[in-house]
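Fold in tokens:
===
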Amino acid sequence: MMSLQLPPFDPRITFSLQVLDAADGRVLVSHAPDTVCETASVGKVFLLIEVARRLVEGELAPDQRIEIPEEHRVADSGLLYRMLDQRLTVWDAALLVGAVSDNLATNALIALCGLEVVQGMAPFLGYTDTSLLDYIRDERTEDMPWTPSFGTGSELSDLMRRLGAGEILSPEISAQVMEWLAADTDTSMLADSFLLDPLAHVEPEYQGMVLRHKTGSTSVARIDVGHVSGPAGAVAYAVAANWKGASEDLRAPAVDAMRAIGEQIRAYVTGAERAEAPW
């Protein structure tokens, strides 16, 4: 069966990655899969799991309005901080988190669920080196958690495989999380190689591919985790790239490596012929 190859990596970047065949869990390619990396917004997936659980089990109503604590008002990623009416429903706030990684909606939902509860979701699911740690902050000082979320390639790829298989808490909860992730507009990293319409890929799109994913970005990190299926198969993937301490911004070589892996994943799930890797 077709295997994937690792592209060259810039040695100044710490990578943790793993790509799985989503059907049988077989490892297609990996590199330092157990190395812990900062994962920026990727940990918001655990928040979405908790919100989905509460909706499915009736602890929250989808049309319940969120409240935004003043101490957790943030800007940057998202749309809610720019909206005139910020009293969204719980369901729509979760959609904003899935679609544009909305920081303000994230903080409102964390406050609604409780930070300790959300922090406990990853260990409850069996993950020891991956979690959401904190609210999103405009400034992260030394007395705060070191990162909003962290994780490894092995655990994050397993999370996406289990979500795709309906194994996270229940098939209904898994499907709800995947529905929110279907709206993700950030196809700038590994998913760029799938050539999908960034704003409209809920249904099967280019070459019959269906993508559900979550990304994270900081000035020293790029992360893309997802589940993508096509006419020839399905893959769960996680690629984290960190370069804290480097003397320059290394997003270009980080994203180049992600896209090279993405090209091979596209060939794997679509059955398209793949040109010989140039490395």
